[in-house]
Amino acid sequence: MYSESDIDAAVTAGAIDAASAARLRDFVAANRAAPAVDEESFRLVTGFNDIFVTIAATLLLVAVGWIGGEIRAPFAGFAVAAVAWGLAEYFTRARRMALPSILLLLAFAGGLFAGAMALFVDGRGIGAMAGGVEDGRVRALALGLVTAGAIAAGGTRLHWRRFRVPITIATGAGAAVALAMGVILSALPAAAEHVRSLTFLAGLIVFALAMRWDMSDPERTTRRSDVAFWLHLLAAPMIVHPVFTGLGLLGRDATSGAAGIVLLLYVALGCMALAIDRRALMVSALVYVLFAVSAVFRQFSVVGLNVAFTALVIGSALLLLSAFWQVARAFVVGLLPPGIAKRLPPVRKLIPRPAS
């Protein structure tokens, strides 16, 4: 990697002329500004030191949580959150390290949420909700969700204002969803039977928020695109899981008819993913499609190799789609109204690289 001072020194020494140096700078600037074709770029690792720091921070946070849990359960979560914030002051604010910043943000928000839940709700509340028993326990869990969600949401807002880590908005949105669920369940305990529908509705709201961030930066050259990426990653399972589990696909009695519906829904999700140029929806639904195709093979008595054939079909299809992603995008976007298409990321032509 050559710095600006290296180029200036080369011009001074006569190794290259000033015009060549200017062309080199223009080329590098244009190359960095242009988004890479067929990629959802977001910064995760800038070097092995990111991984090294992440491993060390994980060990430290686990130890803090373990020791705090021996003192008192709520103290574990709050201690982890406090240590994560302190580490972020250096590794996020000063060093701007991507992967450690993500870990520390998740540890901070998760610590606040877990600490608050341990403080306000005992372990029986969650089991009560899962079993759908007496309303009092469901309401106790709901109040705990309200409190924990509010604390986590407020904490992530402060974290965003301090550190501006792109995943923070998605984490705050998740906390807000928990808060909203808690409010609904505390007011209407019977709504515990409709958690799947509520999750789907929340997923649509988060998806709309992700699209708002995405459409504000269709060229994907700013941090707003990174924020949208994490919001899409949050929204996708919230939308996909209720739909596919509602079809009973995860049960052993999954039929080929249900599998066919799943495949059609996956094609629709694929078209949406192509239109918005985000692969999160397809990845989130992948496990259900694997179950669906496996069920089809079982219907044809291909039991011994059903998993292998499923992996072969799905893997080949996804690799083919990846190879022709921009071609497929051009087709799908071309079917949309111009007013919508112009607000989406532009379809870019794949320019082959010159042979080295």
Q: Helices and strands in order, then pairings?
A:
Layout: H1 4-13, H2 18-33, H3 48-71, H4 73-91, H5 98-120, H6 124-131, H7 135-163, H8 167-187, H9 195-215, H10 223-246, H11 256-276, H12 280-284, H13 286-299, H14 306-323, H15 325-334, H16 338-341
Anisotropy-based shape: globular
Task: Report the total helices.
Answer: 16
Number of strands: 0
Quote the beta fraction: under 5%
Q: Please provide the ordered H/E string of secondary-structure elements.
A: HHHHHHHHHHHHHHHH
Structural class: mainly alpha
Brief characterization of the structure:
The chain is mainly α and 356 residues long. Helices cover 75% and strands 0% of the residues.
Top keywords for this entry?
356 residues; mainly alpha
Describe the protein in words.
The protein is an all-alpha fold and 356 residues long. The protein is 75% helix and 0% strand. The chain contains 16 helices and no strands. The protein has helices at 4-13, 18-33, 48-71, 73-91, 98-120, 124-131, 135-163, 167-187, 195-215, 223-246, 256-276, 280-284, 286-299, 306-323, 325-334, 338-341. α8 packs antiparallel against α9 (195-215) and α9 (195-215) packs antiparallel against α10 (223-246). It is globular. The model is unreliable at 32-38 and 123-133 (pLDDT under 50).
